Amino acid sequence: AQTVTQSQPEMSVQEAETVTLSCTYDTSESNYYLFWYKQPPSRQMILVIRQEAYKQQNATENRFSVNFQKAAKSFSLKISDSQLGDTAMYFCAFGTWDQGGKLIFGQGTELSVKP
Amino acid sequence: GAGVSQSPSNKVTEKGKDVELRCDPISGHTALYWYRQRLGQGLEFLIYFQGNSAPDKSGLPSDRFSAERTGESVSTLTIQRTQQEDSAVYLCASTLQTSGVHEQYFGPGTRLTVT
Fold first, then answer.
1. Rounded CA gap, A5 and A7, in Å?
2. Chain A CB within 8 Å of residue B55 CB
3. In A, which residues are within 8 Å of B101 by CB distance?
4. Which of A48, A104, B22, B56 is least enclosed, having the fewest CB within 10 Å?
5. Who's near B70: CB < 8 A, 6+ residues apart?
6. Cα B52 → chain centroid
7. pLDDT tens-digit series, residues B16-55
8. Residue B83 to residue B70: CA distance in whole angstroms
9. Is there a contact between A106 and B40 (Cβ–Cβ < 8 Å)?
10. Residue A14 phi/psi, 5° resolution?
């Protein structure tokens, strides 16, 4: 069975600085997809970034980038120039096409951006 | 366009009562997912619908849980004889499922409290 582990329950960062959130996963699949979702206090889940496992290039979306290490089964999220609006729970998630795209989530990391 | 909507936003019920939660997916989205999020936890997959195919019910925690979806429209999640451990936020997501695993668009959730 696939599992996703986020080992940092809470993190904090000063505004404008850079922070990295960790995620590891376990699977025997070779083709899969990885995601980072953000959940602010409003409870609305928002996609931050998506990575296809067969692509070696790390995904980037503006201030957000990932470090995808397939052999190590690691998928960390780097947030550059942190903003107060980045304060939220961040969830790492894993999915495969042959399982219908259902996502397996980690336990989350609560990120606080301090002014 | 309109996003995924869920109703009610909050539901308080007495132990032993039945509850019905509703999800309206984004129009045209063929795939619909239900997840459960207990307080301070990640999301747990419950059930998945894809078009007219048989649903994937592998995440339903007990036979007290059931869900229906008619075609590519509204879905309802029913919990019979509610227990206190059913207290959680129930999130619905939809996506236009083609090859690969794509972004799931989440609703705001229904917070269920069983007293």
1. 6
2. no
3. 32-33, 95-97, 101, 103
4. B22
5. none
6. 17
7. 999 999 999 999 898 999 999 999 889 999 999 998 888 9
8. 27
9. no
10. -80, 145
